[in-house]
């Protein structure tokens, strides 16, 4: 009887105070428990709408009601961190991304901060908002090709020397398609865009320089330079907004669709 009672007390102590729970590191950065130490052998498919409601100041009871108990043997009551393992469906063929999520509580057991172990997972839980193109803009556009600046140029690059090999190949393919499918084109407009990070002046100059580099490569592919004009719009007409995305590296990745070069055939 005493042995059984002792085992019960030890188990209860783990539930209340936590057993080997991972928490903040020495510099305050989050540390995550090993994935295979979770009692969840597979990640849980969380209700994303519930997950998005979690924010600072919420109680443990509110968290429990939204996404359930933590997925590691770290306790529930007298602990500062709850850790979870979530699965998200991505792409096709039932492909799944597994993500570790951590909630940090303050001295009053209220949510102080939340963290994702994998930066990409923050975007799976809060996908960027896609803004449809205004109807007046769509009406004046002909056929258009949108190329990611991240796939065309090295970081912060705009000159031809900064172009990636895959970026050059994209331009060659676009030029070939224009000559094949639009032999009677009236005009080609190459417009560069950036994300909202950086100053307006810097973004305007960077976007225009990239557009001019793309124009030069199109001309090299035997397209008529007199019919190709360029523009640099900086952070105008964003495709995504990413209003509440942090930290910086996650925000930078979220804003990637805005860093682009559009080639319009009129």
From TrEMBL:
<dbReference type="Pfam" id="PF04355">
    <property type="entry name" value="BamE"/>
</dbReference>
<dbReference type="InterPro" id="IPR037873">
    <property type="entry name" value="BamE-like"/>
</dbReference>
<feature type="signal peptide">
    <location>
        <begin position="1"/>
        <end position="17"/>
    </location>
</feature>
<protein>
    <submittedName>
        <fullName>OmpA/SmpA/OmlA family outer membrane lipoprotein</fullName>
    </submittedName>
</protein>
<feature type="domain" description="OmpA-like">
    <location>
        <begin position="140"/>
        <end position="266"/>
    </location>
</feature>
<keyword id="KW-0449">Lipoprotein</keyword>
<dbReference type="InterPro" id="IPR006665">
    <property type="entry name" value="OmpA-like"/>
</dbReference>
<dbReference type="InterPro" id="IPR050330">
    <property type="entry name" value="Bact_OuterMem_StrucFunc"/>
</dbReference>
<keyword id="KW-0472">Membrane</keyword>
<dbReference type="Pfam" id="PF00691">
    <property type="entry name" value="OmpA"/>
</dbReference>
<keyword id="KW-0732">Signal</keyword>
<dbReference type="GO" id="GO:0009279">
    <property type="term" value="C:cell outer membrane"/>
</dbReference>
<dbReference type="InterPro" id="IPR036737">
    <property type="entry name" value="OmpA-like_sf"/>
</dbReference>
<keyword id="KW-0998">Cell outer membrane</keyword>
<dbReference type="InterPro" id="IPR007450">
    <property type="entry name" value="BamE_dom"/>
</dbReference>
<dbReference type="InterPro" id="IPR006664">
    <property type="entry name" value="OMP_bac"/>
</dbReference>
């Amino acid at each position: 009887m005493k042995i059984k009672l002792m085992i019960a007390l030890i188990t209860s102590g783990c539930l209340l105070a936590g057993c080997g729970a991972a928490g903040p590191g020495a510099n305050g950065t989050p540390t995550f428990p090993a994935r295979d130490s979770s009692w969840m052998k597979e990640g849980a498919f969380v209700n994303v709408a519930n997950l998005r409601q979690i924010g600072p100041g919420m109680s443990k009871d509110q968290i429990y009601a939204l996404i359930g108990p933590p997925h590691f043997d770290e306790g529930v009551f007298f602990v500062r961190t709850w850790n979870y393992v979530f699965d998200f469906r991505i792409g096709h063929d039932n492909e799944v991304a597994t993500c570790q999520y951590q909630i940090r509580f303050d001295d009053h057991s209220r949510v102080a901060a939340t963290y994702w172990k994998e930066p990409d997972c923050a975007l799976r839980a809060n996908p960027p908002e896609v803004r449809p193109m205004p109807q007046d803009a769509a009406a004046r556009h002909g056929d258009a090709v949108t190329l990611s600046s991240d796939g065309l140029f090295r970081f912060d690059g705009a000159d031809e020397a900064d172009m990636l090999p895959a970026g050059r190949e994209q331009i060659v393919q676009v030029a070939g398609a224009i000559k094949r499918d639009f032999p009677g084109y009236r005009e080609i407009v190459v417009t560069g865009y950036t994300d909202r990070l950086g100053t307006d002046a810097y973004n305007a100059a960077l976007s225009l320089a990239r557009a001019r580099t793309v124009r030069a490569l199109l001309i090299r592919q035997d397209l008529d330079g007199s019919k190709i004009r360029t523009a640099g719009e900086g952070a105008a007409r964003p495709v995504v907004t990413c209003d509440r995305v942090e930290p910086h590296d996650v925000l930078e990745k979220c804003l990637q669709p805005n860093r682009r070069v559009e080639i319009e055939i009129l």
